[in-house]
Amino acid sequence: MNAHVRLCHADEVPEGSSRGFDPAGSGRDALFVVRRASRVHAWLDACPHWRGAPMAWRKDAYLSGDRTAIVCAAHGARFDIASGLCTLGPCLGQSLTRVPLIENESGELLVQLPLPTFEETNP
Hints:
Helices cover about 5% and strands about 30% of the residues. The chain is mainly beta. It has a single domain (about 5-120), classed as Rieske [2Fe-2S] iron-sulphur domain (Rieske Iron-sulfur Protein, 3-layer Sandwich). This is Rieske (2Fe-2S) protein. One of its GO terms (molecular function) is 2 iron, 2 sulfur cluster binding.
């Protein structure tokens, strides 16, 4: 059954930051959200190079030091925040898996469960 799950209020993801979420209660962050240029983007927490390995080196640490790119902690691949496209590293040309994000009239960020899986989007 599909259900919308609240992640947080949009204001809880400040400009230039990232935050991981476990909306299904699996015990690890399944997706992360990044705010850049006043837009919020959501991605599966799964690197396309390492068959879906988690991206962060610690909780909520998905961005480069200058906060201009998403970086996989496992091997340093860099991804464009807005498109999810790998711009540097072993998965050059591959992309992160976008998670459809809903921002309601109250500013709450929601996702629909079940989430897409890495395997479904990267056969």
